[in-house]
Design goal:
The structure is a single chain. By secondary structure, the chain is of the alpha+beta class. It is built from 13 helices and 16 strands. The strands form 3 sheets. It has an 8-stranded mixed sheet, sandwiched between helices. A hairpin with a 7-residue loop joins strand 4 (about 75-80) and strand 5 (about 90-100). The chain binds 4-amino-1,4-dioxobutan-2-aminium adenosine-5'-monophosphate and magnesium ion (MG). 4-amino-1,4-dioxobutan-2-aminium adenosine-5'-monophosphate binds near residues 211, 391 and 435.
């Protein structure tokens, strides 16, 4: 459109000197007229703040500019000058404003505040709102900080497959991947679909976790991590569950449970510190409009060691608490969200790592403890959310692992490659999964997972 390369609003507002010839581009947030001018607040998503554009009535298209409404896109050339108005350092006095795309009164994001529920229905437009612009800039920074954390510590990033044949968590919450026609597909003698004739000549699914493949790489490259999308067909309609979410999964050879807990704690603290440092305006907005206690809570989390407690002591605490829970709690039962939140919010009032769970309620790959009853598992719980990390030391002894798999009614032939890792140079190793969206909820205070995912997939909902 023009030779002059354009400046972001962020860079313009952070300028240290006036600029004679500047080009800025973005979307109109508001516009108001005074006698000889029109004041345009323009945002380009590079930061929370808007840039004020002064349109003088001498501009040749001034009449068209006066008809321009919220949501229109513009390209502006002019000079960056110190602002007269309060609340901003710089503004642009325009020499030329091109209306690139108009918007009319039906534009749903007029100035007034909208509920998150309404904004979810316009997920394609909501990143233009202040709140969602902030959420998605922080999401980007958080992803970067995760790579930074691991790369600084010598971890190798492994791209584990999205299509797999294994059910890592053994919960059967898998989305099937097939090219067969469910009506006309090839059948076995018993009438069931013959997946051996399917695209991959076997049953395949979208992965629920990259862990098993990460283990193979940890048993070669020592310290690795995966960071990618994972899929769960679990029918939980809660504010913390999505059907498609991202997970960070480090895996470390020659590492036992304590090292694993240490890394999870270090990671969570590092991510908070990084985002607080690099997204101060966004964090301020969350503290103002989403959760007043956010910054104090995050500071508190960064400053103190996390509480560690074994599962049976946690159950004792819960039973003796006198608190009224919807779900029962007893040794051998899973901790429900309400139990997790009681531990971290009411009792310890800080993040809590619960470890050594009964083997019956955990997946096949977790290492059996010497008591024969518990496995070396960890769940890290945080206030406001509950479980944010799940992990374990892995069973490295082939005989014990095979026994676990039989107990879980698994077909050992399907996991030959996984068992090979114990056959050839086995080592104690550990890892965990951090839910990326849950971490984002924790850092931003945004209470619903649907509002930290660009286009959320949840049961019954995959629009956009
Ligand atoms: O506890 P989970 O199921 O653990 C695993 O998948 C292990 N294979 C990880 C490992 O050891 N490498 O999931 C790990 C984390 C949970 O703590 C939670 O934060 C997140 O992933 N998570 C979900 N986040 C959003 N929506 C869902 N449906 C989630 N399920 C798990
Ligand atoms: Mg878990």
């Amino acid at each position: 459109m023009t030779q002059l390369s354009s400046t972001t609003v962020k860079d313009a507002l952070e300028s240290t000197a006036p600029i004679d010839a500047i080009q800025v581009q973005g979307w109109v947030r508001t516009r108001r007229d005074s006698k000889d001018f029109s004041f345009i607040e323009m945002n380009d998503g590079s930061c929370l703040r808007n840039l004020q554009i002064i349109a003088r009535n001498s501009l040749p298209n001034y009449a068209a500019l006066q008809r321009m409404t919220t949501g229109a896109s513009i390209s502006v050339r002019g000079t960056l000058v110190p602002s007269q108005g309060k609340g901003q350092t710089w503004e642009v006095v325009a020499d030329k404003i091109d209306i690139v795309g108009t918007a009319d009164d039906s534009y749903p994001l007029q100035k007034k505040g909208h509920t998150p529920e309404f904004l979810r229905e316009i997920a394609h437009l909501r990143p233009r709102s202040n709140l969602f612009g902030c959420v998605f800039r922080v999401r980007s920074r958080l992803a970067f900080a995760i790579h930074k954390f691991f790369q600084e510590r010598g971890f190798v990033y492994v791209h584990t497959p999205i299509i797999t044949g294994s059910d890592c968590e053994g919960a059967g919450e898998l989305f099937r991947v097939t090219t067969l026609d469910p009506k006309a597909g090839p059948r076995r003698l018993d009438g069931s679909i013959d997946y051996e004739q399917d695209f991959f000549a076997r049953c395949t699914y979208l992965t629920v976790s990259g862990q098993l493949e990460a283990e193979a790489f940890a048993c070669a490259l020592s310290k690795v991590y995966t960071f990618g999308p994972t899929f769960r067909a679990e029918n939980s309609n809660t504010s913390r569950h999505a059907s498609e979410f991202w997970m960070i999964e480090p895996e470390m050879a020659f590492c036992a449970l304590n090292g694993n807990m240490d890394l999870a704690e270090e990671l969570v603290k590092y991510l908070i510190v990084d985002v607080r440092e690099h997204c101060p305006d966004e964090m301020e907005l969350f503290a103002k409009f989403v959760d007043k206690e956010l910054l104090a809570r995050l500071d508190f989390v960064v400053d103190r060691p996390f509480q560690r407690i074994n599962y049976s002591d946690a159950v004792d605490l819960l039973k003796r608490s006198g608190a009224k829970f919807e779900f029962p709690i007893d040794y051998g039962l899973n901790l429900q969200s309400e139990h997790e939140r009681w531990l971290t919010e009411k009792h310890f009032q800080c993040p809590v790592t619960v470890f050594n769970f009964p083997k019956e309620i955990k997946p096949f790959y977790m290492r059996l403890n010497d008591d024969g009853k518990t496995v070396a598992a960890i769940d890290l719980l945080v206030p406001g959310i509950g479980e944010i990390v799940g992990g374990s030391q892995r069973e490295e002894r082939i005989d014990v692992l095979e026994e676990n798999m039989r107990r879980h009614k698994m077909d050992l032939a399907d996991y030959k490659w996984y068992l090979d890792l114990r056959r050839y140079g086995t080592v104690p190793h550990s890892g965990f999964g951090l839910g990326f969206e849950r971490m984002l909820m924790f850092i931003t205070g945004v209470p619903n997972i649907r509002d930290v995912i660009p286009f959320a997939r949840t049961p019954g909902s995959a629009e956009f």
